Amino acid sequence: MPDLVGLGVLGLALDDFKPFVLTGLSLGAVYALSATGIVVLYQATGVLNLAFGAVGALGALISWELVNSTGIPDWLCYLACVGVGGVVTLLYGVLFGPAFAGRDALVKATATLGLALILLGAMYWIWPAGTFARSLIMPTTNWGFQVDFLNARLNGTQIIAMCFGIGVTAGTALFLRLTKLGTAMRALADDREITATLGVPVRRVEAAAWLGSGLVCGASGLLLANLVGLDAGSLTFLVISSLAAALIARLRSLWVTLFAGIGIGLVEALVTPIFELSRYRTMAPFVLAIAALLVFQRQNTMPVTRAAR
Amino acid sequence: MSSRKLRIVVALAVSGLAAVLVTALAGSAGGAAAPVGSGKQTATNSVCGLGTGKKATGTPIKVGGLVTFEPGTDFQDIARAAAAYFQCVNDNGGIRGRPVQYKYYTTPINPVTAGAQARKLVASDKVMAIIGNTEILDCTVNHKYYRANGYYVIGSGIAPECYNGAPTMAQVNMGPAYSATGTAQALVRAGAKSLVCDTSNQGDPTKYVNLGCMAVGRAAGIPVYDSHHDVPVTDGASVALELAQRAGNGGGIVLTYIPPEALKILQAAQQQGLVDRVMWGCATPCNTDFVAAALGSTWNGKLHVNAELALLDSNGPDMRLYRAVLKKYASKTAIGSFSQMGYTEAMIATSAMLNARTPLTKQSINRAIRDVKNYKTDILCKPWYFGVAPYHNPNNTDRTVVPENGKMVQKEGCFNILAYTPQLRQIRVWERQRNLNSGTPPYPRQGRAG
């Protein structure tokens, strides 16, 4: 068993970390997925959506309800989770987006925090936490294979999470660069007023950003319900990891967001076998985000899109 | 309208009315089944309180409780089940005609709130008894206050003080530490090569929950590890991998979490292919069919769960009534160990109130609660008692269950929990000396006149 340089003093070897790589990668990919939705929405509308986790949790719980209380095919119920994410986010964006358009970024973010708390309260009311154990396990979660060199099992949902995280990031980057709507979104990010005077239908473009971000949010909720567990509170507050990834990417670069998300997931997972640090691993997103903010502040490169002004 | 047509219309109307009347009468005859919990208390039939089937209408007897409720830690099912039983008692004659008015407060894990809510029950609400308490800090923070105010509290304990330092508090459960001990004993008997004792940081502020589990491992001469994780668990896969890595192949893992959190770790373990690599165990909270159903057949016989109370589908008279009461009065409350505890606490308290001297006062009711002994119920392995002692742990014998196709089934019958504390060793001495739980003479459940 080869010793890992620097960690030998802790009695650890490389093999001790191997089983945690896959779980870190998959969870990190979902963080990146969520963070991509957050960044795109922020770029287009100037809104830092703190309700991202709550909306995903709502979608997952509705999906669970449909699976367990109706005869609807399971795959349609899973799609409903994605749909709920899109619809709730779009509704919020259409109803409240214009009213907050002229306000500063802090007000906009605080408003979404209000949405998160309302949704969290509603979820606890409709689906009380209590001792009732809920789970939403897709068939892909039960399918998998052993990855011998990492001494861990890779399941279908983890594969989907990794592919989805990378695919959505790449797709969104291409979409923003190559399509008319994407160009309009980027223009909004630069200057909302000038874009409007150029004849771009601002509200429609913003609605598209809310919808796209919401669909990503629903997909993240579904994946996290499988990878982490179906619990309104946990899923709501997992937005913190995604926010950290988005902040590390300065709410700007989708590719940095992807790597930051995966990095956070990996750090959280790889700290686990270090028993002395294990109980502090949930601090990883905070620590990494604070470190990034300190570096940006030092370099004076904190991002403020014109849309956010 | 011709007279013929008129006759036809009248005839149709009359026959329709007659049909409605017949249906209604048949319905009422069919619905004349005895109300839930009514009848005579016998060895084979359990009833709610006096079992008269008549609503109690007198001056309410105020009873209160405290339960912890915050994300990741929710004991409300215990209070809900107690409330359900008291409702059934109220529909069956109450306490000598007086209904029980049960009210419980929820608290986060905060000593200030725990203390404040206890004072609210005592000073503002002026409750006559305190039943159903399952508050993580309650025994630690409030036991002296309860004692000073003359309350003998029946609850479900968590903190160590509930079992080694609260003279006026007795629990129907043995608490997470002893339950984890029982789970560890089951895993060692099943051949575990090591023991990882894992619980939540928030639920174990004094770090005592794993002590019994580790004592079992040490007694068996195998490696033991103390482990804690934050709840809500946000990365079940990493937690499961970490635990399995610590335990090593063939090692045992004892989880002491509420069901939703334990389930996250167990499902992650399944996804990571760890079900057979180590031996899994879980303390009493996992003894619920929801966990068994959510885990599925992969876990058949592979999760050793400590059961401080009877099997959920067992057919003793108290368990039959428990299920019926929950179905009628608290249909959204899960059938499981937590609701069993609340139900049992309310059942014992009701019998004590029926045995209390009249007029019913706070003093007479609490004296009656203190004097309960040899209380036989098929929900517990041995008769329950309160009594006068510096500490109490009347339920120190339990079972092991395992999931089997969506249900929990018994793997091991009642066994004594390892007495790893001097308090439990002393309690067993008192039990013998004072005839506290031999079952003879049995406690009169419907009052001495009942």
Report what the structure shows.
The complex is a heterodimer of chains A (309) and B (450). Chain A has 309 residues and is mostly helical. Chain A has a single domain (8-299), classed as ABC transporter involved in vitamin B12 uptake, BtuC (Orthogonal Bundle). Helix content of chain A is 72%, strand content 3%. Chain A is built from 15 helices and two strands. A two-stranded antiparallel sheet of chain A has the order 1-2. Chain A is globular, with a radius of gyration of 20 Å. Chain B is of the alpha/beta class. Chain B has helices at 3-30, 76-90, 111-124, 138-148, 161-164, 175-189, 211-220, 236-247, 259-271, 289-295, 317-329, 337-355, 362-370, 422-433, and strands at residues 61-70, 73-74, 100-107, 129-133, 153-155, 169-171, 195-200, 224-229, 252-256, 279-282, 303-307, 397-404, 407-416. In chain B, strands 8-7-9-10-11-12-13 form a seven-stranded mixed beta sheet, sandwiched between helices. Mean pLDDT of chain B is 90; it is low at 19-31. Chains A and B meet through α2, β2 and α11 of A and α8, α9 and α10 of B.
Task: Quickly list its features.
A: 309 residues, mainly alpha, 15 helices, 2 strands, B: 450 residues, alpha/beta, seven-stranded mixed beta sheet, six-stranded mixed beta sheet
Helix content of chain B: 40-55%
User: What is the H/E order of chain B?
Assistant: HEEHEHEHEHEHEHEHEHEHEHHHEEH
Strand order of the largest sheet of chain A: 1-2
Widest sheet of chain B: strand order? 8-7-9-10-11-12-13
* Structural class designation of chain A: mainly alpha
Total beta strand runs of chain B: 13
Quick one: how many beta strands of chain A?
2
Determine the structural class of chain B based on helices, strands and strand pairing: alpha/beta
**Net shape of chain B:** globular
Helix-strand blueprint:
The complex is a heterodimer of chains A (309) and B (450).
Chain A lengths: L13 H4 L1 H27 L6 H18 L4 H27 L4 H22 L12 H4 L1 E4 L4 E4 H23 L1 H11 L1 H6 L4 H26 L4 H6 L1 H10 L5 H17 L4 H4 L5 H16 L10
Helix pairs in contact in A: 2-7, 2-8, 2-10, 2-12, 2-13, 3-4, 3-5, 3-10, 4-10, 7-8, 7-10, 8-10, 12-13, 12-15
Chain B lengths: L2 H28 L30 E10 L2 E2 L1 H15 L9 E8 L3 H14 L4 E5 L4 H11 L4 E3 L5 H4 L4 E3 L3 H15 L5 E6 L10 H10 L3 E6 L6 H12 L4 E5 L2 H13 L7 E4 L6 H7 L7 E5 L9 H13 L7 H19 L6 H9 L26 E8 L2 E10 L5 H12 L17
Parallel strand pairs in B: 1-3, 1-4, 4-5, 5-6, 7-8, 7-9, 9-10, 10-11
Antiparallel strand pairs in B: 1-2, 11-12, 12-13
Helix pairs in contact in B: 2-11, 2-12, 3-4, 6-7, 8-9, 12-13
